[in-house]
Design a protein that fits this description.
Elements: E1 6-7, E2 10-11, H1 17-24, H2 28-35, H3 43-56, H4 62-68, E3 75-80, H5 86-100, E4 105-110, H6 115-127, E5 132-135, H7 143-149, E6 155-158, E7 168-172, H8 174-187, E8 193-196, H9 203-218, E9 228-229, H10 235-246, E10 254-257, H11 260-270, E11 278-282, E12 294-297, H12 300-315, E13 324-327, E14 330-332
Parallel strand pairs: 3-4, 3-5, 5-6, 6-7, 7-13, 8-9, 8-10, 10-11, 11-12
Antiparallel strand pairs: 1-2, 12-14
Helix pairs in contact: 1-2, 1-3, 5-12, 8-9, 10-11
Protein name: LacI family transcriptional regulator
Pfam families: LacI (PF00356), Peripla_BP_1 (PF00532)
Keywords: DNA-binding, Transcription, Transcription regulation
């Protein structure tokens, strides 16, 4: 089997300017001047060079060309979680729309929740001399970035604060949102409330777990503790976990899921259940209103826009101390979170 980017097992190499010049029958310097639109190149020569470039599939590296001329890059990097997750795609959309107003372009990469990959991506973006770097971190130590930050590349952290360095940060009110969800269920008479959470090592999940636990402790309720499940990381695992919870005796009368993927898994587990427990999920999602799912909502696009504004201000010369913006949350009651205890 041929390797990716290869033909018949042999690597396919990009055409070079030297090959363009040879095909057009001109010097390397003339080929460069023709493709860069510089003066003093005969029209027929320019046409011949461009035709050769088209034939070979050669394209100028615009970024490298501008940097050689002393210009600054118009690119801003975003390292995030999986962009197929509606949350991250909404964040990226908010960033892109804000940057566009300032003539900047967004380039994205997925860290796969892997600290080593995140660090490699940071290095790759810095090598390309991005104007700023926005990071949804997966690592637990960002001290190494402090050195790069002093070299004029602003960093903004989204959703999760950095560890080991001070930097502008935009986060969701995870603690407050989860606390509000727990209070909502307690007010509905629920005591056996299952908490299904994602990776507990991640700061947003810790905040949501802590907010939930705080509300339960204030209410003097310990009946939820047998139904705590953490490190549930995808839809299938969430579905399996909720099915297992429903099979316990006694079963929980309510479920709180700590992100949109886990809520999706819970909905699959509850499908067709004769007396489903109450359900509240953190993060709104498409069709949640149609299927009547109560959620802890926040504006993911606003999170992205805020991060982009902080980056733009740093690009513009702001040198103040690191700032933190907290995006508010609210419980939107749609029916599932208002079911009474069985």
């Amino acid at each position: 089997m041929s390797a990716p980017g290869s033909a018949d097992g042999q690597a396919v190499r990009r055409p070079t300017l030297t090959q363009v010049a040879a095909l057009a029958g001109v010097s390397l310097k003339t080929a460069s001047r023709a493709l860069n639109g510089e003066p003093n190149v005969a029209e027929t020569t320019g046409e011949r060079v461009r035709a050769a470039a088209d034939q070979l599939g050669y394209r100028l590296n615009g970024i490298a060309r501008e940097l050689r001329r002393g210009a600054t890059s118009a690119l801003v990097g975003l390292i995030s979680g999986d962009l197929t997750n509606p949350f991250y795609s909404a964040v990226a959309s908010g960033i892109e729309r804000e940057l566009r107003q300032h003539g900047l372009q967004l380039v994205t990469a997925n860290n796969d929740e892997d600290a080593e990959r995140e660090r490699a991506l940071v290095d790759a973006f810095l090598e390309r001399r991005v104007r700023a770097l926005l990071i949804v971190p997966s690592g637990t130590d960002h001290g190494y970035l402090a050195i790069e930050g002093t070299r004029g590349v602003p960093f903004v952290f989204l959703d999760r604060p950095p560890v080991g360095m001070a930097a502008d940060t935009v986060v969701i009110d995870n603690h407050g949102g989860a606390r509000a969800a727990a209070l909502h269920l307690l007010a509905g008479g629920h005591r056996r409330v299952a908490l299904v959470a994602d990776l507990a090592r991640m700061a947003p999940q810790r905040g949501r777990i802590d907010g939930f636990v705080e509300a339960m402790a204030e209410a003097g309720n310990d009946e939820w503790r047998p139904y705590l499940r953490t490190d549930v990381h995808d839809v299938r695992q969430a579905e399996r976990t909720v099915r297992e919870l429903l099979a316990t005796d006694p079963a929980p009368t309510a479920v709180f899921t700590t992100n949109n993927r886990l809520t999706t898994g819970a909905l699959r587990a509850l499908r067709g259940h004769p007396r489903p427990p109450a359900l509240i999920g953190f993060d709104d999602f498409d069709l949640a209103d149609v299927v009547g799912t109560t959620v802890v909502a926040h504006d993911a696009m606003a999170l992205g826009r805020s991060a982009a504004r902080l980056a733009q201000e740093r690009i513009g010369g702001h040198e103040g101390p690191a700032r933190t913006i907290v995006v508010a949350t609210s419980v939107i009651a749609r029916g599932s979170g208002e079911r009474p205890p069985n």
